[in-house]
Structure formats: structure tokens, C-alpha cells
Amino acid sequence: MKTLVHTLFCLLILSVFFACKSNKEIPKAAPVVNEVKPAPPWVSSRPNNGFKFIGIGFADKNKSSNYQMEAKKNALYDLSSEIKVDISSNSVLYTVQNNNNFNESFNSLIKLSNSDNIEGYQLIDSYENDKQYWVYYQLDKDEYAKQKAIKKQQIISKAANLINLSFIDEKNQDFSNALKKRIQAFGVLTPYLSEEINFDSQQTNGVKTVFDLTALVQQQLQSIQVVTTKTNAIIKPFQQNYLPLDFKLQLKNKFFLQNFPFNIISDEDRVKVMGNAVTDNQGALQIKINYAEAINGTVGFGLNPDINALMGNDSVGLAGIKILKQFINTSTLKVYANVVPVNIFIKSTENNLTKPTGASIIYDYILQKFNGQEVVITSKPELADYIIEASADTKQDLSSDVLQKSYNVSLAALNINLQLKNNKSNDIIYSTIISEIYGYANSLENAGNNAYQTSKLKSKLSEALFFLKRKIFVY
Question: Are residues 147 and 251 in the same domain?
Fold first, then answer.
């Protein structure tokens, strides 16, 4: 029994000893060191491959949270820059080679278009460090040429279909949609305008080339006409609200120009207009006047076909308009209006104790206040835009008897009913009663006559005429 206990005790001592020794022999883990991967050669030295297009791009990590996409975008733009744009002698671009500014913008547009439409490229490698992310793409030149030829033919077919549909619109007298489709056709062809483009004329109603297409657009725009009238439209100066100027537009075939937008430009700085307008279903176009001064003469307005507005949000059509405008002339149509004074008729009745005074004191004062280039005082009420009516009369004041008994003085009160009428609508647009004007004399008749001579009459009438005039003019 003692032997067994002794043996177990020895084993326990040995296990503790080896356990301690084992713990002492476990080595500590070495510290982790982040190794910086060296940059591949293509980062510092651009590869050269005669059979591949190469695109290398990078992005700063600190400047963009989506730096990987930014690097890819830059690499594809770099790749597209390697694709040489060969200018065909039969191409649209060839005709404007002498315009350096246009060539630069056109080539930039081609590169942007290429970077958006390139297919078949491959990611060869990528590299990043703490600050930058780099990518390296390649595109097989033969594969690119093959895919480009296929896509070009698809684009030409799409443009041809649009041209064909435009003739159907034209047959249905839908001028605006016919023009839109032709501009869309030009827009889809934009990436290939440095190359020769030919249509199957049987599918496009005789349109064989892009030049035929631009000539068709030009022909359409030149077919727009203004329906002539015997008299010019009329503008009244300094109005709070101006009547719109009405014009009619048609095509050379005498059909109305429906739902077509225009930019409006005034030839005269003193007549300001709303800058755009659209014809209605009957070809009517309204020019809205914002402000007009009294120039008393004829003013012209330029109507420019607004093909940008015609295309609306059509991104394809809008993309081609800038280039299309190099080959077409959106000729300005001219319309005219006469800026003429406001015609005013003044009717003044001046009585003293219900009897006519035979004078024209109030009439003359109103005439004086409306003396200006913007006004003509007419003697014929039927010709007037506005009619001013002043009805004045005197009567014995309530205090007259007391004054007569006490001081042998009579007191007369003058009242004036003043109103302004729009002669076109017959609406009364201003009305007031001018009172508290008095005259003193030894007789009531003389007191009434004196009331017409007081300074109070002029000050009261002047105040009322100020508000009346503001109903006609806004300076």
C-alpha cells in the first residue's frame, strides 16, 4: 500500500515538472510586418503591343470612395485615346477640317463615345498601395475592328429606320415628329461621322448619305414661313399686363406648323419679350411681352427654330445637335409690331350749382398730367383705349347759412366724381370722389367759382390722378 502511494506521488511530481518545462519552451509569436508589394513595371513604363490597344488608369484613394470605378473609367478613356480616328475623305468631319476648334471637340466626343461603347477589353493586372489604385486593360485590335464593324452596321440600320419613319410622319403632315426623327438619326450616327456612311436609298426614300440627311433637315427648316398680314401687331408702352402678339406660321405647302418651338429675340432693348414660344395645333404663335417703353415706332422680333427644345429629353438627338448645326442654317424668321401710344379720351363736366361754368379747369389739369410720349389724347371716344370721366359740381355747404348771417360770406363745396374706364372691356378700373374743396365769396355763385380756383383743388386732383395713372402705366 505504501509503495502504491509513493509511486503515484512521484508521477504527479514528474507531470508538473514536464508541464512547466513545456510552457517555457513555447516560443513567442514574431511581430507581423506589412510588406509593401513592389509596383509592376507597367505602372512606370507603358507596355508596347502592336496587336493590342492598351489602357492604364489610376485613382487616388483619398479623393474618391469609389476609386476602383474611377481608375477603370480613366483606363478605358486612355484605351480609347489609342484608337486612331481615321478621317475618310467622304466623311462629314472631312468637310470641316479647317475648323480646329470643332475638330478638337469632335475628337473629344468620339473618344468619350468610344470609352462608353468599347467591348471585349480584358483586365490584365491591377496594383494598389496606400495612396493609389491602378488598373491595366487590353483590347485585341482585330476583335475591336470586327465588333466595331458589326456595331456600325447596326447603327446605320437604326438610322435608316428612323429616316424611313420620318417620311411617314411627313406624309401625315406631322412636321415636328418628322424633323425629330431625322435629328435622332443624325445623333445615333455621331460616333461614325469621321467615316464614310452610306444608306440603302430604297430603304430611306432616296437618302444615300449623311449629307443627304443634313440637306433634308435644312430643307425642312427653310420651309417654315410666317403668314403675312396687312397690318402689324400693336404694343402699348408701360403696361401692367401686355396683350400677346399673335402670329401664324405655316409650311411652304400651306399646312400649319403645329407644336413647334421657337426662341424669340427682340431687336429693341427697350422692348423685352419672353424668350420662347410654341405654335399650337393651328400654327398660331404668341409672343408675350414683358416690358415695353414708348419708342413710337416699329420693332422686329427674330423667331429661331429651337431644335434643342424640339428634342426635349432625347439624349441621342441632343448629342448630335451641336455637330448638326455645323451643316445646317437655322434661319431666323422676322415678325414686326408697332409700339404706339395709349389713346385716352377725356370727358370733363364742370358745373357750378348745376349750371355749366363754361371753363375747362379740370380738363386742362388732367391734360397737363397726361402729357408725354406714351400718351395721345384723342377727340374720338371710339378710338380710345381708356376714357377718363370727371364730373364736377358745387353746392351750398351746410355751414354757409351761419357764415352768411354772421359775416355775410357764402361757402360752396366742390365735389368731383373721377373714374377711369377700359374702353375695350367697358370695365371701370378706378373710381373716386374728390371732396373737401371749398370756395368763399359774398354770394354763393361766386363762392362756387372760387372753389375751382383754390390750390386745394389742384393738390386733391393731383393725388387722385396719380393713382388713376398707375392703373394705366407702370414705369
Answer: no
